[in-house]
# Entry
Amino acid sequence: MNVNKRVRRTPAESKSLILETAAKRLAELGLHGLNISGVAKAAGMSHATVIHHFGSTSAMREALLQQMTNALLSDVISALREDVSPDQILGRLFSMLSQDGHGRLLAWLALDHQDIDVLPAKSNTSELFKSIIQAIPNSSDTQGDAKLQVLLVATAAMGLSICGGALSDLIGLSDEEFAEFPKWLARHLRSFA
Amino acid sequence: MNVNKRVRRTPAESKSLILETAAKRLAELGLHGLNISGVAKAAGMSHATVIHHFGSTSAMREALLQQMTNALLSDVISALREDVSPDQILGRLFSMLSQDGHGRLLAWLALDHQDIDVLPAKSNTSELFKSIIQAIPNSSDTQGDAKLQVLLVATAAMGLSICGGALSDLIGLSDEEFAEFPKWLARHLRSFA
DNA sequence: ATACTTATCAACATGAATGTCAATAAGAGG
DNA sequence: CCTCTTATTGACATTCATGTTGATAAGTAT
# Structure
């Protein structure tokens, strides 16, 4: 039949192809999609190749999280540099966290190895939150409020990305009401300050 | 050495022993602890016995969730019947969800088989939410607000039970500030109405 | 062309988790 | 004491994911 033709990529090409595929599978298949064999198959290579580039499965997943938080960080930072009004920042963060499986991936990592130190991209994420907190309108005596607001937004976004649909069903929200949730939350957060 | 002595329990005893052990392991070891072999070992029986009683691993986990949501439901219902003031109800729900791994178990179930229909205890949970929504003070034109508040509390509690500690670190909250979070949220929710 | 580096892959080894099955024994009821 | 039900178990089979290794070939440099 076909002679075995090998595609030989540069390491950078391979890595980005793999991570791209992994991200796609995360979005489509959920966290099940983030195993070596599946990703490799979807990327059109053998799983040994993936291990060759990343060293291990968990390293691959951490690289993916790294990449995703980097993207998130730069998104938020550019938003902060633009003329986005400060009271919209939390809304932005919220939607960014609940989209693209960011929240799900974070949650999965936290759930899987609950021995937390594994949380990678720590410095990045920390920087991200600092930027946001500084950008939130603070009255001087509600110093801590900004942090609590961020915590609320982060936890809610995470919970939403995991269980949002199911919870909405259980609570009895219509699709329209459910879709309004981020705006509703943003409105109330604005009134916090 | 020792003659093989078998303990013969009634099916009810076995089941409750297994679920008890599973709950303990969920709290101590996280979701990793919820595998057949581990639970069986910790309960002092062979894993075949566990399968004999529950039929499968996932059935055991669903039974555990069933039990936990039942406990949660009766807790909340008794709280509703007592003289708990309505504006404390969300706080109660919040703490109940973020304790004992309720949130983590729910999240794990949702993450694992994201094919949602597996969500068991649907009727129970649904009833739970209905009771709570009815108990929330509603102005007539903020009919939907109660539901959104519940959604906020549920998602935040879930996110908190998964990532709370890590997020708090990343955001830079002190332990005291972090501990204040539920009260802080409850205070603001009260002002929603 | 030749040699060298290394990305790629098939095959194998390993280990964990789940589930099945037939044999055993504990207890209940006759 | 005998019988019958069934909770319990060890051993086996299966599946799946991860990781290893030696061989192969694609591309680069000399």
About this structure: Chain B has two domains: 9-55, 63-192. The first helix of chain B runs from residue 11 to 29. Residues 99 and 113 of chain B are 23 Å apart (CA to CA).
